[in-house]
């Protein structure tokens, strides 16, 4: 918890919130470009409908959306609510991270983790695919911050890898059995790789919680969004599972350990 006095606390939280908005906006842009096969490093942001290059005033997170009343200035096309919502969500998650981990390398580690999860969720929603680049980014982020933060680097890296396999291997085996029984693909390879990547960040107990939570969220999403079709032609009605895993991983950062302690305290 932050303990720098009212003034500094407010300052830190305000800056964190604004950075969250900007990074949320950035990830929206990256996810859109990847989902639409565009170069995401070069090129200016443009209107998704008419191609007009966006001016700085049209690029302010959330505010632009409110000022333009949810319509683009160039062609008056409706802007998806998804942009301001994900920008706000990122800002709120960033606040939560700083409140939990203080001004620290841990905070930075989980902020990058959150951004990767957001990108995974957005691209999976649009394309029903999880690019390997995101999985790799998550693995590199884990290795990098383990080297920066932990004193016993090697044993922490090994623990992470064991956790990652402990979550992904049983799910891989289960999905192979399910594929045989259902005679169709039950879970994509991207989902299993995503389980491995997020598994690196948690203890085995927390991973158990994460798997249960992701399945519950998956069921809820499938029911709530059953009318939304995605790009997967073989299985057009299936709602992608990546967003459920991403959300469960984000929630686990905050509640997995305390909930497990609470549960074990009952016995
Ligand atoms: Zn336009």
Short description:
The protein has 267 residues and is an all-alpha fold. The chain has two domains: 1-103, no CATH class; 128-267, no CATH class. The chain is built from nine helices and no strands.
Could you describe the 3D structure shown?
The chain contains nine helices and no strands. The longest helix is centred in the N-terminal third of the chain and has 31 residues, at 5-35. The radius of gyration is 20 Å and the shape is globular. It folds into two domains: 1-103, no CATH class; 128-267, no CATH class. The two termini are 29 Å apart. The chain has helices at 5-35, 63-67, 82-101, 105-127, 132-149, 153-182, 189-199, 204-224, 242-264. The protein has 267 residues and is mostly helical. Helix content is 68%, strand content 0%. Zinc ion binds at residues 47, 49-50, 52, 72, 74-75, 77.
- Tally of separate helices: 9
Radius of gyration: 20 Å
The count of DSSP E runs of length 2 or more, i.e. the number of strands, is 0
Largest sheet: none
Identify the notable features of this structure and list them briefly.
mainly alpha, 68% helix, 267 residues, 2 domains
Set out the fold topology.
Elements: H1 5-35, H2 63-67, H3 82-101, H4 105-127, H5 132-149, H6 153-182, H7 189-199, H8 204-224, H9 242-264
Helix pairs in contact: 1-3, 1-4, 3-4, 4-5, 4-9, 5-6, 5-7, 6-7, 6-8, 7-9, 8-9
The structure holds zinc ion (ZN).
Zinc ion binds at residues 47, 49-50, 52, 72, 74-75, 77.
């Amino acid at each position: 918890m932050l303990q720098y006095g009212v003034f500094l606390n407010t300052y830190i939280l305000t800056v964190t919130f604004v950075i969250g908005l900007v990074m949320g906006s950035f990830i929206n842009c990256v996810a859109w470009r990847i989902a639409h096969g565009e170069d995401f490093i070069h090129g200016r942001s443009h209107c998704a409908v008419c191609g007009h290059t966006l001016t700085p005033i049209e690029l302010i997170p959330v505010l632009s959306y409110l000022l333009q009343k949810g319509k683009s200035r160039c062609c008056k096309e409706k802007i998806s609510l998804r942009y301001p919502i994900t920008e706000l969500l990122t800002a709120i998650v960033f606040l939560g991270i700083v409140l939990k981990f203080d001004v620290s390398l841990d905070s930075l580690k989980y902020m990058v983790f959150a951004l990767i999860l957001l990108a995974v969720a957005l691209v999976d929603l649009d394309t029903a695919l999880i690019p390997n680049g995101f999985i790799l980014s998550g693995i590199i982020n884990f290795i990098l911050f383990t080297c920066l933060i932990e004193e016993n680097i090697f044993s922490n890296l090994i623990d992470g890898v064991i956790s990652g396999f402990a979550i992904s291997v049983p799910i891989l085996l289960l999905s192979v059995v399910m594929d045989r029984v259902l005679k169709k693909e039950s879970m994509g390879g991207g989902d299993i790789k995503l389980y491995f990547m997020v598994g690196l960040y948690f203890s085995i107990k927390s991973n158990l919680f994460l798997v249960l939570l992701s399945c519950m969220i998956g069921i809820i999403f499938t029911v709530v969004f059953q009318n939304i079709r995605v790009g997967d032609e073989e299985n057009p009605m299936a709602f992608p599972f990546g967003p459920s895993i991403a959300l469960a991983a984000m929630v686990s950062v905050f509640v997995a350990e305390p909930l497990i302690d609470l549960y074990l305290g009952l016995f």
